[in-house]
Amino acid sequence: MDLMLLAPEIVIALTGLAVLLIGLFLPTGSKKILGYLASLGVLVALGLTISSLGTEALVFYDTVSIDALSQFFKIVFLVVALLFTISGIKYTEGNSNTEEFFALGLFATIGMMFVASANDLMVLFVAFELASLATYALAGFEKNNAKSLEAAMKYFIIGSLSAALMLLGISYVYGATGTTSIPEVAANAGILASSPMGIVAVVLLIAGFGFKIALVPFHMWAPDTYQGSPSVVSALLAAGSKKMGIVAALKVFVVALIALQAEWQTAFAILAVITMTYGNVVALNQTSVKRMLAYSSLAQAGYITMAFVVLTPLALGGGIFYALSHGFMKAGAFIATAAVTYMVLSENKESPDPDHIDNFRGLGKRMPVTALCMTIFVFALAGIPLTAGYMSKFVLFSSTIQAGFAWLAVIAILNSAISLGYYAKIVKYMYFLPTDSEKVAEPYPYTVAMVVAAVGVLAIGFWSEPFIYWAMEAAKVLVGGM
Amino acid sequence: MMPILSMIVLIPLIFAALALLTKTKEQARAIALAGTVIVLLLTVYMYFNFDSTIADNQFKELVPWVESLGINYHLGVDGISMPLILLNAIVLPLLVLFTWNDDRKSPNKFYAFILATEGAVIGVFTALDFFLFYIFWELTLIPLFFMVSIWGGPNKHKAAIKFFIYTHVASLVMLLGIFGLYFAAWDMTGTPTLDIPTLIAQFQFIESGIAKDMIFLALLFGFIVKIPSFPFHSWLPDAYTEAPTAGSVLFVMLKIGGYGLFKIMLPMLPFTASPNLMITIMASLGSVSILYGAFLALSQKDLKRMVAYSSVSHMGYVTLGAAGLVSLSVSGAMFQQFSHGLIMSIMFMSCGIIKNVTGTRIINDLGGLAQKMPKLAVIMVLTFMASLGLPGLSGFIAEVSVLAGSFVNLPSYVMIALVAIVITAAYHLWALQRAMFGVYNEKLGTVTDINTYQTLSMGVIAILILYFGLNPSPVLEMMLTNSEQIVSLMAVMGV
Amino acid sequence: MIPIAFYLALAAILFSIGLYGLMTQRSGIRILMCVELMLNAANLNLVAFSSYNHDLTGQVFALFSIALAACEAAIGFAILMALYRMKDTISLDHINVLRW
Amino acid sequence: MAVGDFAFLIPVLPALAFVLTFFLGKKLPSGGAIIPIVAIATSFVISLLITLNLLANPEEVVSQSYSWFAMLNIGILVDPLAAVMLTMVTLVSLLIHIYSVGYMSHDKAPSRYFAETALFTASMLGLVLSDNILQLFICWELVGVCSYLLIGFWFEKPSAATAAKKAFLTTRVGDVMFLAGIIILFSDLFKIFNGTIPDGVYILRFDEIFAHIPDIAAMNANIFGMEVSHITLITLLFFGGAVGKSGQFPLHVWLPDAMEGPTTVSALIHAATMVTAGVYLVARTFPMFIAAPDSLMVVAYVGAFTAIFAATMGIVMNDLKRVLAYSTISQLGYMMLGLGVGAAIGAEAVGISLFHLINHAFFKALLFLCAGSVIHAVGTHDMRQLGGVAKVMPITAATMVAASLALAGIGIPGTSIGTSGFFSKDAIIENAYLFGDTTGAWIPYALSIVAALLTSLYIFRLLFMTFYGKPRTDYGGHESPGSMTVPLSILAVFALFFGGLTSKTFNTFVSETFVNNFVNMDIHELASIGGYHLASHGGHHEPLIILWMPLIVALAGFVIAFLIYGLKIVNMDSLVSRNNPIYKLLYNRYYQNAIFTDFFSVKVIYEGFAFAGRAIDRGFDWTVNWFSDLTLEAGESLRQFQTGAVQNYATAVITGVSLLVILIKVVMEVI
């Protein structure tokens, strides 16, 4: 078989190991280089993936499939990883464990990439756990920060719980169908559908993936973890591993368990509505920006989940496209928060909650670029036109109408109206509320990452044709199973 | 030929970006003036090359954008949009002149937002693709939102958020309607398209009457809120009152609600499942707005708030006239948008000036300003007369056309509106008498008359009000052409 | 031969015990153990099914998951250790700075 | 080329004068009065020539129309009816402008004054010239605004500002009715053409309207269960407009207050020209009224009632100008009555009424100018402080007497000896008799006779109190300058002799209007549409007493006034006192102010409706805010789920799982 097909994964893996080893021998002062190395690796992988767009193949005894879907999501993950590594350069400045940070990040990325291309429940589960484990550690990266540790702890416990649930679910699927290979499961799913295990398996799997996607009520960890863990990590979690959950769910439900469509469709319908409403409403009066973003990403997850309810090619394409845009928007927003946090901390080491919205007062004057990018991100999340957010909402919501789920579309629309409330609040703080503190120099790696993300958001929003095309291609892979 | 429409849409946006980069007030206002004047020149050029005898879109530009969804970059103007573009192009340079000597924080942003709004609004008027239309539609919100929340009055934040979310909800509902139309057409033709004329043409072929009415109502709601019409007006008084003077004027320039009514709603109206119901809805909303706004204005203590409510009342004529479905009433309603834009700009400018020189807008605290500010007094009297529908001024043409035209089909609604005419006169004169005439209120201290730039800008608009009052044809002709075409549709359907 | 249902029942019971512990226990260590319990219940399922289906995949899967469980334990303990260092307790009730 | 081609200059010149005076006035001597004077003089010459031309050959009616927008036009129409009005308006306006040079010499803003009067003249002429109802309405509104501006000329006086507002609003009520009439008319014609109007047809032109009177009369509206013909409806609404403009009951309340303006303004606008616009409107649209006899009845009754109603108040007023104001209202009532009797005598009524209108314009303008010159000299309005002014200001006094004789209508019936007022007023009263004779409605006649008595009573009372006897206070005083006395004398001549000279020709001349102007218009035919027949012409002879009655009552009035105010044989103090209910009622003007202004407009409209509306609006606002508050509350309570204890999180997950299983089960069962 042709290893070149897995070149991106291999590159990332090697980079990760290299970073880890080199890091051992470098003095803390000069560990900056690792960040650049990691970014370079991700960039190369990204290049390789994009260059291999359109190839279709099965490797490792048909347990790993390379197709439009996996390629698309790989790109999403690599982009997020890129933003992660770039902004990580600044974040890990002067930290003695820099290498672990980047290594873990890269390993998590590999996990996500393999989930994206998994063609076998076993591979899927293992890759899923790989990503989870790496991110558990990342969440608790600030060893001396109680919040960070608490975040990690909660993330870990709920994570492992859901892992157990997922495993149990998979075991039932395996038991009923006698195989773990996704296409074969799809072939034999009829047996499962007939047996009482069916519903249980479906629900258990939903719980397992719902934990990653952060669907209410499996979301409980998300706000705490996003708030507690370092902003850069939150970016990876919200933008990266959330999408991993989505792609996994897509593969397992839309492809493997299409026979039980009725069951999980209703389940997702309920969850989608609850999730988006809960997320938006609770986000309204949060004082911690990171927590607000966490709830907003709940809401966004709710929107994306609509794809599972509508299940038309356009809707699935829209959901996938939404995942891409959300990657950019959310990662960017969290990185902007990271920049602010950095600024606050550099002013006052002991600041209790550096991500409090009061720290955004007058940001427009203090950190113009950051403020501008943040504005772009939140407006994109709110779905203001000419941004990725609007484009993806347009496709997804319109597909909902097309499929006749008008009620769902109305709920979603009203939700995105509510969401304006807190997004506008951030903008208000940044531009309209006076501040006495003066302008500060903006940490450039953060700035670079934000600008990249912002450019991405605007590019997708304005020149969306190719992105939508690839999203549709990816959706085709799924509906092939239908 | 050159892509003139793209130019008048993009030039303001580009200049807005430039204005953002400037450092001083002088540079900012210079750039703003340059941008708006260029747009004015282009528009005038376009106006003179515009064929007002045909109802089709002209100066079309068509560039594919997102084929897989049938989205195109499609621009064009017709007799409905041309006058409104003209209105914006004329008023905005004057608005820049009006603010020429003001001192305010971060002028670069201020002028940037003025330009951005112009670009967005003209964009709405020229867009022939629903996607583009909606983009510009939403784009108009943002600069105005900033305008209110940066330079607004005491309750600016509340007003800004309220306005932003309220109108955003409306536009989202409108978006739902667009989706419905989009897919209904997609299912019928098999090819996705968001082209406005095409979709309007397809509307009649939708089988399900429910779907038709739902689509129609969703779109209607979006437009009605923007107009705004009773009972969806409650964002307006706060927004208009809290906004800075320039902001209020920009709000007045925001004629996209009524535009949508004429451009999109009326051509669909005869093909809805229950046209008469729709007409009843529009007519009653319109006539009630007229009366309701008048009464509310009468009860206001704050001059600017009074003007805001009078605006609700005046925009009622637009809805009523649109529902009238006689070429005279429809074109009168279009003309009302045009003349209302001119009149209200001066009204708000006057409010701003009075607030600046006296420090208050409470009508009872003012008094006898005419003695100290003769120039302002002359302009204000003229404008107030225009606003209360004095013949010979633009307001009258619009109102009489709407009333006379609508009476043919909707006599009882017109009678409601007629009652309002007296009330309208009452509050205008009351305000004039209290604020401008009578004994000068010494508590106001020493006040100075309007400066040259303000005189110039307000004067020019005032002259335009007079000119279009005496000779409306330059804009009314093209409006008539289009409204006759719309009405002919009605005739076909026997509505 | 013991019918499959027995295995499933056992696994279910084990799993439920784990769940119960997870919901009630305060000590981080115990919670960790409960998680292990649940994972192993799932493994039991896999193995049972694999022998029932005469197909090795299940057992391979079980091996993988055991390995993963080990990693989980490692990371879990690491996090708990760090917490203990900072707070001198692993009673999770007292660790709720992040909420609402 | 014919003089008619210059007709358009008649309104245009004063309009230009307005622009020039407005911008240059301040720099010129005496506020640039010369500009409007020259302009109006020219207009006067043109209109005079046109009139004479029409007299010579009546078919040379000037009629030009230009498309304005849609199916509407602007145009001019000078038929005899318009011609005489034009001549009168230009003449009076000219004289008053000349007079004003002296009168306004001490004012601080004469240029504004002359600009506004010029604008007024222009609009008034435009009104008269209109060849379509819409243009007439436009000018109608413009004169209203000019009167608003001129009443409030001294706007720093709060009373003036208030009076101006009141005048505008009260007339506005009438205007809205007028507008409503136009709108109904428009939609009727629109329906008659069923929506497709051929090019070159302007549907609101008078000839178009009159041509379609039968069709309009055929349409019926059901109002409060009553079947009303559209023609009646429209004419009544038009008359409503006239009621507002011409100060007929009950919309007359603004006219007395309008005296807050300069006296010259009162003379020009509120005596001679603008207030007669209402009469002119009815006269102009008379063919429609003929076809609607009910409307004509209303016109007659309202006119007669107003005549006596205002006269009663005129008796007790002590303010020089207010007396004249009420006299104006009363005389306008006569004119309306004159039109109303058209139900009996047809188009002739227009001639009679217009004749009185013209004469009234002369003598009433004269009265006001005399009053003005008195006020100018002595600086007070209050008659109780005057007396014996005749000695100080002989010319003024003489002219005043002439005017009063005209107003009282002194003259010898059957001959052509008598003042202008005599001929016109008696004609009206006689026809009122004829009206009663044919229709059996005698009340108008009775009222008009009594009103005639009161008229001479109050005017001679005014004369005696002001000019006769010895001064009650020591006002300084002197005869006014030539620029003021010359116009007075000229007007005096007209007041005395115009009627006598023209009484023969005038009526036929004006009454021809509809016959030879609007093609094949047979008044009788129209009347038959209205469902009745006009009294046969010539065949009616009133008994002699009827001819002499007006003179008798006029003289009676003079005698009473002389006895009371001249010889003081009756002590007024017993009558003129707060505890005399009748006097009190009259003096407080029947408490209309309390009823209309204080109660209706303030209490009901302002406090009632407006504040109710305000409450409603708060309701809407509250609803909107309520939604946002609700969501915020929900958020606040929902976030409490996030307790922070990880076990609860685990519990939530488990609960979620189990709930989902159940839910799905349920849903699957249902579906």
Folded structure, characterized:
Chain A is mainly alpha-helical. Chain A has helices at 7-25, 32-51, 68-91, 98-117, 121-139, 146-177, 182-194, 197-213, 221-228, 231-256, 261-283, 289-310, 313-347, 363-366, 368-382, 388-402, 406-431, 444-462, 465-479, and strands at residues 57-59, 64-66. Chain A has one domain. Helix content of chain A is 77%, strand content 1%. Chain A has a two-stranded antiparallel ribbon. In chain A, α2 (32-51) packs antiparallel against α3 and α3 (68-91) runs antiparallel to α10 (231-256). In chain B, 69% of the residues are buried. Chain B has a domain at 275-495. Chain B contains 21 helices and 2 strands. Chain B has 495 residues and is mainly α. Chain C has one domain (4-92): Helix Hairpins (Orthogonal Bundle), CATH 1.10.287.3510. Chain C contains 3 helices and no strands. The N and C termini of chain C lie far apart (53 Å). Chains B and D meet through α7, α13, α15, α18 and α19 of B and α5, α6 and α27 of D.
List the helices and strands and how they pair.
The complex is a heterotetramer of chains A (482), B (495), C (100) and D (671).
Chain A: H1 7-25, H2 32-51, E1 57-59, E2 64-66, H3 68-91, H4 98-117, H5 121-139, H6 146-177, H7 182-194, H8 197-213, H9 221-228, H10 231-256, H11 261-283, H12 289-310, H13 313-347, H14 363-366, H15 368-382, H16 388-402, H17 406-431, H18 444-462, H19 465-479
Antiparallel strand pairs in A: 1-2
Helix pairs in contact in A: 1-2, 1-4, 2-3, 2-4, 3-4, 3-10, 3-13, 3-18, 3-19, 4-5, 4-10, 5-6, 5-10, 6-7, 6-8, 6-9, 7-10, 8-10, 8-11, 9-10, 9-12, 10-12, 10-13, 11-12, 11-17, 12-13, 12-16, 12-17, 13-15, 13-16, 13-18, 13-19, 15-17, 15-18, 16-17, 16-18
Chain B: H1 4-21, H2 25-48, E1 58-66, E2 71-77, H3 81-98, H4 107-126, H5 130-139, H6 141-151, H7 156-189, H8 196-203, H9 209-226, H10 235-242, H11 245-253, H12 256-268, H13 275-298, H14 303-324, H15 327-358, H16 369-372, H17 374-387, H18 394-409, H19 411-435, H20 452-470, H21 473-493
Chain C: H1 4-24, H2 28-53, H3 57-87
Nutshell version of this structure?
The complex is a heterotetramer of chains A (482), B (495), C (100) and D (671). Chain A is mainly alpha-helical and 482 residues long. Chain A contains 19 helices and 2 strands.
Helical element count of chain B? 21
Helix percent of chain B reads over 70%
Q: Mean pLDDT of chain B, as a whole number?
A: 87
Segments of chain A where pLDDT lies below 50 for 5+ residues?
none
Uncertain residue segments of chain B: none
Radius of gyration of chain B: 22 Å
Whole-Å distance between the termini of chain B? 41 Å
Counted up, domains of chain A total: 1
